Known about the structure:
Blueprint: H1 2-37, E1 40-46, E2 51-52, E3 60-61, E4 76-78, E5 86-89, E6 93-102, E7 105-109, E8 111-113, E9 119-120, E10 123-130, E11 137-145, E12 158-163, E13 171-177, E14 189-194, E15 203-210, E16 213-218, E17 221-227, E18 242-250, H2 252-255, E19 267-279
Parallel strand pairs: 4-7
Antiparallel strand pairs: 1-19, 2-5, 3-8, 5-6, 6-7, 6-19, 8-18, 9-18, 10-15, 10-19, 11-12, 11-18, 12-13, 13-14, 15-16, 16-17
Amino acid sequence: MKKLTYTYILVLSIIIQYSCMNAQKNSSDIVNDSIKKNGYKLAWSDEFNYIGLVDSTKWSYDIEGNEWSWGNNEYQYYTKARKENSFVDGQYLHIVALKEKWNKKDYTSARLITKGKGDWLYGKFEIRAKLPGGKGIWPAIWMLSTDWAYGGWPQSGEIDIMEHVGNVPDTVYATAHTQTYNHVIGTQKSKGLYLSDCEKEFHTYILEWDEKGYRVFVDSTEYFHFKNEQTGSNEWPFDKRFHLILNVAVGGNWGAAKGFDKNIFPRELIVDYVRVYQFLK
């Protein structure tokens, strides 16, 4: 009887394990088939199914603007390869803003970029994430030019797929910045989307970008469309390679525009996955 019971349990365990593996495979196949049907193929991704610092073949740490507060009077110092500010736990990427003294700043955080390791002209970009909240917090999922072919900012453009400020806890924003349209002169093209649970639940932030323009979605809801006016790079610099940026800023011109709470830390942006799809040829 004991031998029969053991054999039964062993067989059942094998069946369950095989079923789970098969279900995962089928699920993956369904996703890939769906993407292919919609004209895309997976070109680059990070599923964050490992432990430790981020994959150095895909990500770098951007620290170049620390001395001038990134042009936005931000309060944080972005650190490099420091697990307290960015780490992967086997399922998620965590970007953590902390209240601590570091290189003449009162806060630390991380700014991760794919520059030189993931640079794309057109495609579909999906980032599933849960956002940090609190007055003064400013997380962003965005893109900058890799080659700066048209000059420095804003000539070469900026694509903000998602920005969120803790002072407006129920809204996310998509924005385009170019020479003609940018926030310095108050002409930026931008739109907000009411998303009451963005600080409590994961949502997928999506960019679909081609030569005619780009669209931004949250999950299946499209809420921002920036069109190529066909008038030149001052309005449309988005015909060159761009790379992805993930960061959590602290304070700054927008982040602290309606107040700042020093008692909310730590705060973290949690990312489930980043997937980049290219058009099928």
